[in-house]
Amino acid sequence: MEDQNKNLILATVLSMIVVLVWMVFFPPPEAVVDPNASVVAPEAATAPALTNSAAAGEDATSVTAAEEAQAPRIAIATDELAGTISLLGGRIDDLRLNAYKQSLEPGAEDVRVLAPIGQENAYYAVFDWLPGAGLSREDVPGPKTVWQAAADAKLTVETPLVMTWDNGKGLSFTRTISVDDKFMFTITDAVQNSTAAEVRVAQRGVIARHGLPANMQNIFVVHEGLIRRTDGEFNELDYSEIEDLVVVEREGAPAEVIEATTDGWIGFTDHYWMTTLVPTQGTAYTSVAKYTPASNIYQAEVRQPLLTV
């Protein structure tokens, strides 16, 4: 019995040593910052707050499964990735990893990182614009905007996806989505103003997760939930901590809003995979963690300052 106790104590000590060594030499990875991952508009400048009709808390996920099912899709085809991009909102919502399987069983399916609305555990990234004073929500691309793309469009490492949308009132928008030979997408937005007056618009990126991940591990040495760095400060929130955030009136939901002055990123991390938004480094932005109880949606957002065009 004494030998068994010694063995148990030894095993416990060795386990703790392994955990500590792992955390020292293999800390949680930070997203690779791509200095070219910018969102661009001509003659950019900061401006006053958004109009009431485009409050920062406006839902960027308000799309039904029926709308999503009818939307045209563009294929993603690289050595590492497969899937599609929906032209409804230009959302990246169907993404699989070609080199990773869901299990070790023969014939196991590829790991699916992102899934569209209407499927179990929907999880996606969507990018839109918010209108400044004098514009309405319908004047800028939103989650229900159907973008236009070439009939033979396909996103590969060599061929970016170019999408366009015209509001019919003198504003035309172009979005270029490119992908590198690994896992980094670059979203470049541009707006052209052919009206007689200046306009003000703001760009936003959202990662939305409907419900908790199906494969949560709940292991104390692995963080699963929101993860971000803001101006050099690292922060993690479990899903339960996101739910318990204080309701922010402007967001209309439990939220944590942080104004970043120089750099950072925000997203969600699972047991093995992490999805993050990396805004242009060296510029100010707003970092938002949010939970919508009515729809059970967890969100990570990056909001850019208003641009004058």
Would you summarize the structure shown here?
The chain is mainly β and 309 residues long. It is built from three helices and 19 strands. Strands 5, 10, 13, 14, 17, 18 and 19 form a seven-stranded antiparallel beta sheet that branches. It has a five-stranded mixed beta sheet with strand order 4-3-2-1-6, with no helix packed on it.
Give the count of helical stretches: 3
Number of distinct beta strands: 19
Considering DSSP H and I runs of 4 or more, what fraction of the residues is helical?
10-25%
Radius of gyration based on Cα positions: 21 Å
Explain this structure to me?
It is a single chain. The chain is mainly beta. The protein is 11% helix and 39% strand. It contains 3 helices and 19 strands. The protein has helices at 2-25, 65-70, 239-243, and strands at 73-77, 81-86, 91-101, 110-114, 123-131, 154-155, 161-166, 171-179, 185-193, 200-210, 225-230, 233-238, 247-248, 253-260, 264-269, 274-277, 285-292, 297-303, 307-308. The strands form 4 sheets. Strands 5, 10, 13, 14, 17, 18 and 19 form a 7-stranded antiparallel β-sheet that branches. The chain has a 5-stranded mixed β-sheet with strand order 4-3-2-1-6, with no helix packed on it. A 4-stranded antiparallel β-sheet has the order 12-11-15-16. A hairpin with a 3-residue loop joins strand 1 and strand 2. The longest helix has 24 residues, at 2-25. The radius of gyration is 21 Å and the shape is globular. The chain starts with a helix and ends with a strand. Residues 4-49 and 51-55 have low confidence and may be disordered.
